[in-house]
Amino acid sequence: MKNRNVGFLIIGVALILILIVFLFNNALRNIVRTTCSHGPSCSMYQTISTQTYLSLAIAGVILIIGIFLVFAKERERILFRKVEKKRKINLKGLDKDERRVVEILRNENGAIFQSTLMEKMGIGKVKATRLLDRLEAKQIVERKRRGMNNIVVLLGN
What we know:
Blueprint (H helix, E strand, L loop, with lengths): L2 H33 L7 H29 L24 H12 L3 E3 H8 L3 H13 L3 E6 L2 E6 L3
Antiparallel strand pairs: 1-3, 2-3
Helix pairs in contact: 1-2
């Protein structure tokens, strides 16, 4: 179920709870009015008010959670697109690190997070960026932005 639908469901439950609180509040006040001999100074009225405010506060929190879920952004799913027509990668003219990137990508089914690639190669951000820039210029890999991360995709086989 999507966050938005759950949010609307929770908002509906909160509104029903608020209605029930007011109905019970009204019923309790009628009971106290007929049974309490002290009149408006009866301590039961204070208890009813406290219970009502507490119940409304709980229903209000539930309502806020529902509103948050309605307007919250759905979590992004990462999808990989399969390339139908694969071309042969020419490894001639590639240096040792560039060949290693291609080898790692082949072992990872053609796609890997840039940070994971950096860890596997034991290199820093600057070297990884320069290396991937060269491979993109040669049309061997492509970087795709996914939130705060890049996914490196092998363009050939």
